[in-house]
Amino acid sequence: xxxxxxxxxxxxxxxxxxxxxxxxxxxxxxxxxxxxxxxxxxxxxxxxxxxxxxxxxxxxxxxxxxxxxxxxxxxxxxxxxxxxxxxxxxxxxxxxxxxxxxxxxxxxxxxxxxxxxxxxxxxxxxxxxxxxxxxxxxxxxxxxxxxxxxxxxxxxxxxxxxxxxxxxxxxxxxxxxxxxxxxxxxxxxxxxxx
Amino acid sequence: xxxxxxxxxxxxxxxxxxxxxxxxxxxxxxxxxxxxxxxxxxxxxxxxxxxxxxxxxxxxxxxxxxxxxxxxxxxxxxxxxxxxxxxxxxxxxxxxxxxxxxxxxxxxxxxxxxxxxxxxxxxxxxxxxxxxxxxxxxxxxxxxxxxxxxxxxxxxxxxxxxxxxxxxxxxxxxxxxxxxxxxxxxxxxxxxxxxxxxxxxxxxxxxxxxxxxxxxxxxxxxxxxxxxxxxxxxxxxxxxxxxxxxxxxxxxxxxxxxxxxxxxxxxxxxxxxxxxxxxxxxxxxxxxxxxxxxxxxxxxxxxxxxxxxxxxx
Lengths: 194, 313
Known about the structure:
The structure holds two protein chains of two kinds. By secondary structure, chain A is of the alpha+beta class. Chain A has seven helices and seven strands. The longest helix of chain A has 19 residues, at 175-193. Chain B is mostly beta strands. Chain B is built from one helix and 16 strands. Chain B has a 16-stranded antiparallel barrel. At the A-B interface, helix 1, helix 2, helix 3, strand 1 and helix 5 of A face helix 1, strand 1, strand 2, strand 3 and strand 5 of B.
């Protein structure tokens, strides 16, 4: 009976491991956190010592629900210092995570301007390949917030066509591509935060 | 041109997954004064806990509960908690991917069916209270085994199995003849405006304790109401019904009231009333007052009050 139960556990584990319900489980846990409190959530498994620390944090949280991010501190972040904001010279905050994420996402392309003070990144002209050099595009990223928020970044893609002997703007909007780029930078920033 | 745009927009699909390891730390300390009967007890304690984690290139995260150091404040008067180090350090390892996690451990707790909600005060205020005439035994479900947690739609499911209940040795023979197993199951899901949790656990010991538990939580505009029920069959059969209400005042003060009624076999019913009031004072610190009143005890005190302060990071 023991062996059968063990095999069932292992088999069931393999099956559900390939399922993609990560976001659903996190949503479920957060709903339970709001009702039971993080420490007493029946679906969270924590040790007794962790529970005592959790309750102390819960009491000190001004009555607000405790979240996973507030439970522990990363030693890596402690050593590196506060990564949530950078202040250069005069007060001019640029969210460090959005900054690093933007550089990371745009790293395949040559960077022409990277101004941390102003939160501005501009790539050099990007040409497709040697077979088509009559079109080029440029990406601009502006970080508008000191906090990691979804509207804290703006992206712009400009493209030009070579007509005659001049580069002329193609007068097109690339809303979808700009949106995809923004989403990817935000995702990368969230990964860096974790 | 199209290829160029595809090249730029393809960044949205590019995977930036990379292995990332981290050590996390958390800790808390407290000082508590308790008044019970003729005693005025002072307890000082705290703990610091480390966790290890990493994310593999394939997206699977691996974590382990690391070492913790500390002394509890809920020890017996005159002796206290002498275990500074954590003998169970590194006894659990969790693998998680796609919302499912599997924990392999030597000190796993799977007492899922102990679903009472009335214990809102800390353990310190209960120190020295007399044992109730009705005291429900749900068994000790902690040992070596596996625990699985996953989501099925809006439901969250947990399954636990101990191949050796009660043993925490980090190297074991799963098939040893002397092993005593235990199994547990729990599921939480929304039921209209409520959230319900149902759980069941059973051990393979000679007394074979079987416990069924359930609780329901409902969010009111002013706070949260919870109701719980536990039924255990083993050396003694009994039930435990409980209810709790918790709310937060606008100034960061939290208030919780809990009531538990325990009825075992033909013994007189024991009732526990607990109240906890806490207030944050900033910078991770708080002050709190707990009260616990118990009627129908075999002997000893029936009420206790504790005042304390804690800080955390």
